[in-house]
Amino acid sequence: MPDMQQASPATATPIIGGLSPVLSLVAAALLMVGVVVVAPSFLDTYLVNILIRAFFVAIAAITVDIMWGYCGTLTFGQSAFFGIGVYALAITFTEYGFGTWQVLMALGATLAITAVIAALTGWLSFYPGSTPLYASIVSLVVPIVLVQILYSGGTFTGSSSGLVGFETFDLSFEDWFRLAGLSLIAVAVVALIIMRSDTGRLLTALRDNDARCTYLGIDTSRTRIIVLVLTALVASLAGFGYAAFGAVAAPENASFTFGTRLIIMVALGGRGTVVGAIVGALSIEVASAYLSGSLPYVWELIIGLALIAVILAFPDGLVGVFRKLVRGLHGFQTAEATRLRPVAASTVADKTNELAIEVRELGKHFGSLSVLDGVQFKAHRAELLSLVGPNGAGKTTLIRCLSDGRERSTGHVAIAGQPIDHLPPDRIVRFGLGRKFQTASVFETLTVAECLRVARTQHAPPSLTSTSTVLDLPAAAIAVLERSGLAERLSEAARNLSHGLKQALELAMVLALEPEVLLLDEPTAGLTRAERQGFADILTTLVSRDRLCIVLVEHDLDFVREISSRIIVLHQGRIALDGSVDEVVNSALVREIYTGQPSSAVEAGP
Amino acid sequence: MLTVALDAVTTAALLFIISSGLLIVFGVMKIINFAHAAFVTVGGYAALVGAWLGLPWLLVLPLAFVVGAVCGALTEAVIVRRLYQRPLDAILATWGLGIVIGQLVTLVFGREVQFVQAPITGTVDLAGIDYSAYRLVMIAAAVLIAVLFTGLLSGTRLGLSTRAVIMNEMLAQGLGVNSARVRLVTFAIGSGLAALSGALITPLSSVDPNMGLPWLISAFMLVMVSGGSLLALAVSCLVLGGCQVIVSTFVNPILGGLTIAILAAIVLRIRPEGFARA
What we know:
The complex is a heterodimer of chains A (606) and B (278). With 606 residues, chain A is an alpha/beta fold. Helices cover 53% and strands 13% of the residues of chain A.
């Protein structure tokens, strides 16, 4: 269930005043450093005190933004990791006093406990088949469990009243302000650099379309777990700083109420921007400090109403509104152009008759209902095998069973000589399989070039710090881009493409994997005649020149006849015919199915 | 031992009563209503007001249902309807609504914990032990809700439309089912059930602005484990609610409160379809 949000500030980097993104980021960061160093001399002590806490909270809010705004996981659980930092410090200093080794011990405990809990949470939240909604709810459980543990910890955790009165670092307010402020700037700059890099685009791709990522050979669960652990570590360090300054640990610091507060901050400030998280955190923290004392319930009420209003009316938050204004004034400049560069296909494709697909006794059952039964065939390199049959015959199910090891109920499947066992799609893709979905499946908020770069993740790991301007692609993918005209529109957002171009883009993305076996599910559905002809030419070239094995699900018999080297007819979950084009097209069964003569052959579609 | 067994069954009944409204909303809309706890609270306060006015208990229950249903219908029409394409935003907006309702209740009724007298007091003698009569009534209430629910889904035109939307919304729309209306009615019924459950549990617990929250996580996890099926929900309530009672009784109550959430998460990790196809 992908969160179909139109809000996608992540990909748009407006260049203000003609500076490059990197320069403007450095300039902004230096300016903020200056402000943070000078500011405490001008602010009153109460505000300085509040801002120090707000800076640490803002760091935690940035981690929520990365999880939610960029990766698409709405997490209520970052407060738990913040709380682990708070309590690791408070418990250590309370039990063992303050000193160098105690600080190191508290730091070590913070990082170690957080890493373990975050990895466990990730394991519970992200697995093939888990939904974003489910991950959200698990993230809600984490702080609740932690707070219950804190409540039942007696004097060790201070129970409901928390821990106070432990000795901590002896710094002046001004120094704390600078320390917290500089930490926030450092975290923000690192987050912005990574989120604007090719790696950041990969995370956005996860948010846009998890299934497509899986079928590009990316282990999405593992990637999400890694991001969760890293952001959790940062959040726990923020909590460590918060407790070190405040010399207080309260269960509220770990509570899910605080976790939701962090989300509200990010939503109000503007998700997927990093800056929005800071704006939201600082404004809410400061406003609460001044307002929650005088009008406690009304203030909470305002926050609730503001959250609803922002989500309904301004899903991009304050930063999004601001950006729209700025863009209106300056116009919008797109990022640097990307250059395509052909790479030699890394796979050796000269063995003749190499077995590409082997299927034995494949069955798929839902209870007593058999969708596929006893399906058995082989397909070789340089073969274009078409799967035809009425709706409900099991064609798409068969494609699914070939590309996802957990789909079939019985039987054996090998792709490029490797048995797929019960492996998830991303592992099978690495054997040399590419699957194009029935409906165009691309990354809506990424540009054409970025979609293709995500598709190349396996071959060229994305940079953590920069965006590359060169895109290495195999010749087949470049041919698709040039033929379809996409080569001239590389910096255009995928969501603005026509249906036909999205289909072409998805095909190019799949070809960027350099597959040996290509599964295409009705690739020409909804295409114009000209686009369809273009597709036919591309497919025949792929088979004859690149020696791919293509399995094509198609309804249009003329199209099938024109390009196939072999046809399999599926009927009621079994292979009814398997033979050359002439044999199959002229058979009585096919004529019966396709001329619609009354017979048991026609089933209702799903 | 019999007490533990009775506790287990009555706890399961309570969990079922509270989760059923959440389940129907999840089944139809594939979203979790984070304002569910707030609607439970609303029902609790409806019962409190009813008790102040001296209304008979059998009138208070439908009153609570109606109040919840009206709140739910308004929520659907004003907030949730606009967010179907953004399910995560929908749950966040309902969370915002939960905050708003909680604060409004606090502003009107204050933060104090208040109590409602149970309509049926005293105990029943069951095989030598005295057991709270009201808790036993909860079992009947849960069964009644399950029966009414099943009857509504399988015996009425609306139920047919609802099942059609649950199975395949696009197709149902194509066949002329007004899925917007189905969603509105579903959300209203789900919220009404939340309020009804709030009214039912008040005599057992107390009424305060956050009374719905402790139930929320358990209800969420039970619904996730059940995957939209009423029968699966009943099974999950019995199994996981039973575990909760056992842990609370023999280990410690705090761990008991976490049992459902933790067990459900583990069940879903090992068996992603949960109890749905058990």
